Amino acid sequence: MAAGTANGVTWTKPILTPEIRAEISAYFPRYPNKQAVTLPALHIVNEKLRCVPMEAIPEIAEMLELSPAQVHDTLSFYGFFKAEPHGTVRAWVCRSISCALRGGDEVLDAMCNKLGVKPGGMTADGKVTLEFGECLGVCEHAPAMLANDKVYKNMTAEQAGLLADELRAQADAGG
Amino acid sequence: MADFEPVLLANVGKADSWTLPVYEQNGGYQAIRKVLGGMSPVDVIETVKSSGLRGRGGAGFPTGLKWTFLPKDHPGPIYMCVNADESEPATFNNRILMEDDPHQVIEGIMLGCFATRARVAYLYIRVEYPTAYKRLQSAIDECYATGKLGQNINGTDFSLDIFLHRGAAAYICGEETGLIESLEGKRAWPRIKPPFPAVEGAFRKPTVVNNIETLACLPHIINRGVDWFKSIGIPSTGPRDPGSYGPKLYCVSGHVEKPGCYEAPLGLTTRELIERFGGGVWKGRKGKMSVPGGVSMGLMTEKEWDIPLDFAGPGKVGCLGLGTAAVTVMDETVGIFDYLTYTCRFFAHESCGQCTPCREGTSWSERILQRIMAGKGRLKDIELLNTIGNSIGITPGTTICGLADGAAWPMKNAVTKYRDEMEAFIKKTNPNGWGVEDAVEALQLVQLGH
Questions:
Q1: Computed over its alpha carbons, how large is the radius of gyration of chain A?
Q2: Which end of chain A is less crowded, N or C, counting CB atoms within 10 A of the terminal residue's CB?
């Protein structure tokens, strides 16, 4: 039964497939209790669905022997997990001071213009979500971006335009 | 200084520096072999205490002393939490250690766990560090495959598991009890202390929390000895000063020609860091001011650049401390309100919301700054920022953790050191309204994402 669909991602109940359950369970022996597996479980679901839908929360809670409210409380504290899927590619532009001093704001503006989104937004075709990041910790290569686990260094507004196309191409190739 | 030999970054830049064979070819895992071959945990603690090693994560607490706060003869478990949530703006020294020399980090964790009798280490790493995460995991896998981690290491009764635990983009997880709460699967709200983690930490058990660079110092202290470590840095000036010993990773970024992470004896000055390592202020411009060690530590003027960046130095010019020794340089084109806008926006975004003075104070300061930048500043706002700065944090006693002190110091230092420039900016940008005393309406926040 389809529980939800958005941006090309469909999830059916139960959202935690046997594979996802096995992946989450593999974390249990690492910790003295199951609650500690909350963040790992959220990451696992997020990697599969590009979001953590509300419907997943009771299922995670049941596995971790918690109340759904406890899982939601933790999830909602971190800005990282969204209820709706982000784009096939998720990109961050650093907006902290060391990047800003070398043109970080201009890079963010250029990316936003080229992709037609505001920070936090997703392109209409669902390919790219663009966010700002607080210090990405690559200040020696400022201004910097992070996308698909790759750091983009010493960005300029011109390069941002090219990168926007590259990120779309990465999305076409499956993210 | 001339004969200073870097140790923490010695392997960085070598081909495949993150692999076990390269680490071992360069003398890796000799320290843990030496310790397992005949030292007791107490021996290691005493060695680290005598070395004068102080925590590199920001607070500078003596590492060996921190370990002695663990209860004696505790039946266990005792946990080690490795703080790799490095999120302080302008700080990236731990990222370089984890990406380019993860085995050095792992050997440090082994030594720390041996000393503290911890048998499980959780390495809490920020999610923004995917390369460091992969390199560390692959290094850990190499260690299990070769019997360096797991049960009965080297045939001794020392056993150790190291688990990576990813964060989810929250600065507060770098605060040690926030980290513990997050590890436990909760929102990362710092705990009221005492009890300190050494007594009651992760999963209510005794826990030691150490920074990556702190742990990376341990193999070198064991291999080269206390006298070597104490020959580097700034010696203690008396019984109340624990001194600033050993090598330190200094980050320099912002307006310099060669931003980077450089290793030097503790006590390097900002000017030396900029001139000798950073290639000077960029574009031939003049330097104006700098952040001494992550934005939390406040602001230094160019005239203060000859103060040593050791644990005692930045405090002498009104800064909060050495912090992470990550310097951000600003040239003469940067306005004081530009600096404050970026800084206050960061803290407003990252306040965890638990303590009202911090939650409200950081977001008020951001709103005031956005209003000033929009040409609606009042002279009165300068005192308002100062009042907020003096009202939030552990220093006035209104918050549980130091995040608010980090938010306060930039405002307080700016008002003390750049009041004239602040007044001139406000008078120039709001010629008709700068004298208004009455409350004015806040603006809609410009940037999305709150």
A1: 18
A2: N
Q: Which candidate, A175, A170, A87, places its Cα nearest to that of A127?
A: A87
CA distance linking residue A121 with residue B275, whole number of Å: 41
Confidence of residue A5 (pLDDT cuts 50, 70, 90): confident
A-B contacts (CB, under 8 Å): 145
**Nearest CA among B411, B276, B392 for reference residue B342:** B411
A123 to A7, A120, B272, B384: CA distances (angstroms): 10, 10, 46, 41
d(CA B299, CA B410): 6
Most A-contacting residue of B288, B342, B344 (CB-CB within 10 A), to test interface: B342
Instruction: Identify the three-state secondary structure at position B250.
Output: strand
Q: Domain spanning A2-77: which CATH class is it, in words?
A: mainly alpha
Q: Chain B closest CA to A67's CA: distance in Å?
A: 12
- Interval B111-134: pLDDT, tens: 999 999 999 999 999 999 999 999
Domains of chain B: 20-231 (3.40.50.11540), 244-331 (3.10.20.600), 336-448 (1.20.1440.230)
Which CATH topology does A89-172 take?
Glutaredoxin (3.40.30)
| Nearby residues of B310 by Cβ (< 8 Å), 6 or more positions away | B233, B234, B244, B266, B267, B322
- Its pTM stands at 0.96
Find, among B76, B77, B105, the residue nearest to B11 by Cα: B105
Which residues are CB-contacts of B341 (< 8 A; sequence separation ≥ 6)?
B366, B369, B370, B373
ipTM score of the complex? 0.96
The dihedrals phi and psi of B122, each to the nearest 5 degrees, come to: -105, 120
Kindly write down the DSSP assignment for every residue of B356-397, as one continuous string: HHHHHHHHHHHHHHHHIIIII--THHHHHHHHHHHHSSTTTT
Burial (CB count <10 Å: 0-12, 13-18, 19+), residue A129:
buried
Tokens of B232: 């580097």
CB within 8 Å: A36 and B184? yes
| CA separation for the pair B117, A42 (Å, rounded) | 31
In this predicted structure, the answer to whether residue A102 has a pLDDT above a threshold of 50 is: yes
Residues in chain B, pLDDT under 50: 448-450
Cis peptide bond prior to B75, omega within 30° of 0: no
Task: Assess contact for B408 and B390: CB atoms under 8 A.
Answer: yes
Q: Where would I find the H helices in B129-225?
A: 130-145, 176-183, 212-224
Q: What pLDDT does residue A10 have?
A: 80
CA neighbor of B351 nearest in space, from B170, B196, B156: B170
In chain B, what residues touch A81 (CB-CB under 8 Å)? 168
CATH code 3.40.30.10 region(s) in chain A: 89-172
